[in-house]
Amino acid sequence: MKPQLIDINLPGSKTIQIKKLDTAYLTSPLHFHQLCELVWVEKSFGKRIVGDHVDNFEAGDLVLMGPNLPHIWKNDEAFQHEIKEGNVKSTVIYFPPDFLLNLTDEQNILAPTAELIKRSARGLRFYGETSKKVTKILAGMSENNGFKKIIYFLQTMEILSTSQEYKYLASLSFKNQYDEKDTKRINDVYQFLMHNFHRNVELKEVADLCNMTTNSFCRFFKNRTQKSFTQFLNELRIGHACKLIQDESYSISDVCYQSGYNNLPNFNKFFKSITGFTPSQYRKKSKFADSPVGSSPLL
C-alpha cells in the first residue's frame, strides 16, 4: 500500500502553514507527506485511520502526526445526508520536523522537542487539560497573523512536549513501506469499508475492488497494512460500536446490529478481545472516564 505522497508546498524549510477548514465534508484520500501535522477538530465526526490504527474521531479531537505517517479522515454517513458548508470545522498546522530544533541549542528545549517528534511518528492523540489548553490557543490562530502565529505555535509545542496526556495511535511495529502502485487499491478498500462496514461484507466483493482473487487479496492486505483483513474490519466495527455504546438510548443489541454483526455472541467476543471490556463494562466505564477507556488501539 502506498498512500499518496502529498506535496504541502511550503515556501521554505522554516515555514509553518496554518489551514482553517470550513467545509461540507472531508474529501482527502489516504495519504502522507514529509511534514508534521497537528489537527484540531472543532466540528465534525467520523472514522480515522492513522498508520495501522483504526478509530472514531469527533469534535474536540487533537492529534499530532509525524512525517510520512499514512492517514485518512472520513466523515460518517450523516454528513452525506446533509451536505452544507460548515459541517466540518478544523484547524491544521503543518511544520517541518526540524523547525524547533533549528531555533535553539538549549538542551532543556531540544530534548523534549526531539522526543515529541519521535513519538509523533506513531501519531498521538492528546486529551484532558492538554487538549483544553492547546485548543484554546489554536482557536485564536489564523492563517495570516504574522508574528503571533510563531508565538502561538511555540506555546502549543511547549504544552505538547511536556504533556503526559496522550495515547499512541499506530502500533510500535508499524512501518510505512508501501509500493506506489498500490495507492489506489488500498484507498479504495478503506473508503469502501468505512462506508459499508455496518452490513455484511463479503471478502470477494472487496477483493474484486483490487482485481484479485480472495487469497491474493488477503496476502496483499496483510502484507501492506500489517494486519489481516478480518482484524481490520472487526476493529472498524468495534470502533463504531464504542461510539454508539456511550449513547444509552441504544441497547447492546442495537449496537451489535448497527455495527455490522449478525449475532450477539460474535459481537461480545470481538468487543472483549479488542477493547478488553464487555460491552456493558465499557458503557459503565465510559460514563466516568476523563481519558480514553481501555488499552485497545481503538480507544
From TrEMBL:
Keywords: DNA-binding, Transcription, Transcription regulation
InterPro entries tied to this protein: Homeodomain-like_sf, HTH_AraC, HTH_AraC-typ_CS, RmlC_Cupin_sf, Tscrpt_reg_AraC-type_HTH
SUPFAM superfamilies per the UniProt record, alphabetical: Homeodomain-like, RmlC-like cupins
Pfam families assigned to the protein according to its UniProt record, in alphabetical order: HTH_18
Domain called HTH araC/xylS-type: residue spans: 187-285
Gene3D superfamilies tied to this protein: Homeodomain-like
Gene Ontology MF annotations: DNA-binding transcription factor activity; sequence-specific DNA binding
Entries under PROSITE patterns matching the protein: HTH_ARAC_FAMILY_1, HTH_ARAC_FAMILY_2
Stored PANTHER family: ARAC-FAMILY TRANSCRIPTIONAL REGULATOR, HTH-TYPE TRANSCRIPTIONAL REGULATOR EXSA
Designated name of the protein: AraC-like DNA-binding protein
Species: Mucilaginibacter lappiensis
